[in-house]
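[recover] target loaded
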C-alpha cells in the first residue's frame, strides 16, 4: 500500500485532498500534517512513498520542507501545492528537486495523474537501487591478500579508460568477477554487459553468435539475427575462454577491433559498433600462438592491460574471509540462519589443495552448511569436505 503524506496548514484543503486520494484508490494510505515542522517530524520517523506539500505555511514554508526532505530522505518524491501567487516559487522548487507542482484549487485529473506518475517513478527508483545493490553484492571481490589488493588497485586505474583488458588464470578463480567489476566501475556501466563463453559454442556457430547472421546464411538461419557485438553496443563484451575461438572468428574479431565494424554472417553490409572488449582465458596463449592456434596480432590487440588472477592455493589467507562471505550468501539463498565455522575447521580448510579454486570452496562450504553441525567443526570438514 502506497503511503502518502499531505502537509497543508489549511484544514479544509487537507480534508479535500485526503478524501480525493482515499476514495480514488484503496491502495493509498493517506496521512496528514498541519504544518512543515509536523511534516518533517513524521518524515523522520517513517517512510512515505509520496509527499504533497503546500508552499506557503507558518513556522516552516514548503521550500524549507523540500530542502530538509532532500537531505534526510532524498529518494522521497515531493509534489508542491501552490497558490496563484506562488507559481514562480513552485517552478523554482522543481530546480530544487520537487517532482512536480499543483495549483490551488487542485484540478482532480491533474492531481490524480501527478500522484500516479510520482508513485510509479518512486517504485522504479527503488527497484533500480535494489538491482544496483544486488549487482554490486554479486560481483564483490572478497580478499585482502596482496594479490587481490593489487587486482583491485589495477581495476580502479583501468576501469575508467577504454583500454582492452585481458584476464588470465585457472578455472574457478574469478575471472568473470574481474570482468564485471571493470564494467561496473567504467563509464559504460549504464550500457549492457554481454558475456560470451567461447568454449561453450560450437566452432561452426561462434561467428553467428558473435556477429549475427542474415536469413538464409545457413540451413537453420530462418530470420535475421543480431550478434553479441551489436547487443553490447555502448557497453562491454566479455569474451570468456577466448583461447577456444576458431581462427576464422578470430580474424573477424580482429577486424571489429581495428575498424569498429562487424558484418553479419551471409551479409557484406558493415554495422558500426561501439564496444569495449574484456577477454579471458585459462590457456597459455603464448603456447597457442606458437602452435598456430591463436593469432598473435589479435593477442596484442586484446592484451593492452593484463590481469592475472591467482589460484586459491596462492592466496590461502583469504579463505577465512571467503568462508564468511559464502556462509552469509548461502544462508540468504536458503532462507536459513547463518552457521559458524570453528577456528579449527577454517584452519583445516586453509590447508586443503583447492584445485577447483573459489568455485570448489563455495561448493564445499555449502555442503558443510547443509550436512555439518550447528557450528561446523573439524570433524565435519574431515567427513564432508574430503575429495
Amino acid at each position: 500500500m502506497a503511503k502518502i503524506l499531505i502537509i497543508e496548514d489549511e484544514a479544509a484543503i487537507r480534508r479535500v485532498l485526503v478524501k480525493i486520494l482515499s476514495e480514488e484508490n484503496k491502495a493509498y494510505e493517506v496521512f496528514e500534517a498541519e504544518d512543515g515542522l509536523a511534516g518533517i517530524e513524521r518524515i523522520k520517523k517513517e517512510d512515505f512513498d509520496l509527499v504533497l506539500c503546500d508552499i506557503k505555511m507558518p513556522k516552516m514554508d514548503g521550500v524549507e520542507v523540500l530542502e530538509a526532505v532532500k537531505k534526510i530522505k532524498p529518494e522521497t518524491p515531493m509534489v508542491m501545492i501552490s497558490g496563484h501567487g506562488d507559481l514562480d516559487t513552485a517552478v523554482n522548487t522543481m530546480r530544487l528537486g520537487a517532482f512536480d507542482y499543483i495549483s490551488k484549487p487542485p484540478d482532480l485529473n491533474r492531481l490524480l495523474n501527478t500522484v500516479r506518475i510520482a508513485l510509479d517513478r518512486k517504485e522504479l527508483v527503488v527497484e533500480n537501487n535494489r538491482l544496483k545493490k544486488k549487482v554490486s553484492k554479486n560481483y564483490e571481490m572478497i580478499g585482502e591478500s596482496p594479490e587481490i589488493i593489487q587486482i583491485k588497485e589495477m581495476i580502479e586505474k583501468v576501469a575508467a579508460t577504454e583500454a582492452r583488458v585481458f584476464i588470465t588464470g585457472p578455472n574457478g578463480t574469478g575471472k568473470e568477477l574481474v570482468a564485471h567489476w571493470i564494467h561496473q566501475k567504467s563509464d559504460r556501466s549504464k550500457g549492457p554487459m554481454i558475456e560470451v563463453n567461447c568454449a561453450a559454442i560450437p566452432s561452426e556457430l561462434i561467428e553467428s553468435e558473435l556477429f549475427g547472421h542474415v536469413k538464409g546464411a545457413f540451413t537453420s538461419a530462418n530470420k535475421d539475427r543480431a550478434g553479441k557485438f551489436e547487443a553490447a553496443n555502448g557497453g562491454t563484451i566479455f569474451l570468456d575462454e577466448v583461447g577456444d575461438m576458431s581462427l576464422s572468428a578470430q580474424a573477424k574479431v580482429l577486424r571489429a577491433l581495428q575498424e569498429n565494424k562487424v558484418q553479419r554472417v551471409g551479409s557484406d553490409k558493415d554495422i558500426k559498433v561501439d564496444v569495449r572488449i574484456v577477454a579471458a582465458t585459462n590457456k597459455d596463449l603464448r603456447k597457442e600462438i606458437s602452435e598456430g592456434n591463436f593469432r598473435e596480432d589479435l593477442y596484442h590487440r586484446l592484451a593492452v592491460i593484463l590481469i592475472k588472477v591467482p589460484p586459491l592455493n596462492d592466496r590461502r589467507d583469504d579463505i577465512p574471509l571467503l568462508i564468511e562471505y559464502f556462509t552469509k550468501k548461502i544462508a540468504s539463498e536458503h532462507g536459513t540462519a547463518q552457521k559458524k565455522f570453528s577456528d579449527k575447521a577454517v584452519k583445516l580448510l586453509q590447508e586443503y589443495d583447492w584445485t577447483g579454486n573459489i568455485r570448489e570452496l563455495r561448493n564445499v562450504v555449502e555442503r558443510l552448511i547443509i550436512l555439518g553441525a550447528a557450528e561446523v567443526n573439524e570433524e565435519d570438514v574431515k567427513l564432508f569436505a574430503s575429495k
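[recover] notes: The chain has three domains: 2-135, 143-310, 313-384.
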